[in-house]
Structures are given as structure tokens and as C-alpha cells.
Amino acid sequence: MASVEAFDKAITNVKCRMKTIELKYFTGTGNSLQILKTCKDEFEKNDFIVDFSSVTDTKDFNYDCGLAGFCFPVHAFGLPRICRKFLNNPDVQNIT
Ligand SMILES: Cc1cc2nc3c(=O)[nH]c(=O)nc-3n(C[C@H](O)[C@H](O)[C@H](O)COP(=O)(O)O)c2cc1C
């Protein structure tokens, strides 16, 4: 399955770089939270250190992470404003 292959590729990529994984979500009814929590659990099962938080959380984001993952719902055919604002941050855009 393509998604499993993509996950394996992401795992290998991060393992090579030995850095933490940053996961950010925004959720209204809990779907996006549940999806990203599932990803978090899988990464942790594979011994990665995961930093998991909501976009509404003001805690620092580690821009030097090995992998950044976001899970947001579609609102009005696009991203919720708070998510767009977060992703437009130049520091986020410069994550390699
Ligand atoms: C204000 C609002 C606008 C939405 N707009 C769309 C939309 O344009 N297209 C769509 O497919 N779903 C839309 N949805 C549905 C959500 O994307 C969907 O229910 C999603 O799973 C909610 O995720 P959450 O539980 O993480 O909030 C909208 C939901 C809300 C509350």
C-alpha cells in the first residue's frame, strides 16, 4: 500500500538524521487529532522522540526537527485560518 511505503520511507529518512519528530494538529471535532495521534503512536513504537501539540499551543516548535507533520481539517474548501497562519511562518517554510 502506498501509504505504508510512504511511512516506511519517512521512518528511514528520520532514522538517518536522528532528530526529533514535530507533529502539529488543529481539530474541531477530534478527527485530525485522532489521525495524528495514530501517527505519533507508530513513531514512538519505532523509538522516535515525538513532540506533539496543537497549533493553538504556544509552546516552542523545534524547527531543526528531522520530520514535521501536520494534520488539519478542510474548512470552506481550504485550510482553517489559524493553520494557514502557522504554515506561513517563514521558519516553518524553511524546514528541510
Ligand atoms: C466550518 C467548517 C467548514 C468545513 N468545510 C469543509 C469543506 O469545505 N470541505 C470538506 O470536505 N469538509 C469541510 N468540513 C468538514 C471537516 O473538514 C471534517 O468534518 C473534518 O473531519 C473535521 O476535522 P476535525 O474533527 O479535526 O475538526 C468543514 C467543517 C467545518 C466545521
Offer a concise description of the structure:
Helix content is 45%, strand content 16%. The chain has 96 residues and is an alpha/beta fold. The model has no long low-confidence stretch (mean pLDDT 87).
Provide a descriptive summary of the structure in words.
The chain has a three-stranded parallel sheet, covered by helices on one side. The model has no long low-confidence stretch (mean pLDDT 87). It is α/β, with parallel strands linked by helices and 96 residues long. The protein has helices at residues 2-17, 31-45, 81-88, 90-93; strands at 21-25, 50-54, 67-71. The chain starts with a helix and ends with a helix. The radius of gyration is 13 Å and the shape is globular. It has one domain. Helices cover 45% and strands 16% of the residues. Flavin mononucleotide binds at residues 27-32, 73-77.
Order of strands across the biggest sheet? 2-1-3
List the ligand species. Answer: flavin mononucleotide
Helix % is: 40-55%
* Arithmetic mean pLDDT: 87
User: From the helix content, strand content and strand pairing, which structural class follows?
Assistant: alpha/beta
Give a count of the beta strands, DSSP E runs of length 2 or more: 3
Strand content: 15-25%
Morphology: globular
Main sheet makeup? 3 strands, parallel
Give the domain tally: 1
Distance between the termini: 26 Å
Number of helices: 4
- Residue runs with pLDDT of under 50 for 5 or more positions: none
Radius of gyration: 13 Å
What is the H-and-E element order?
HEHEEHH
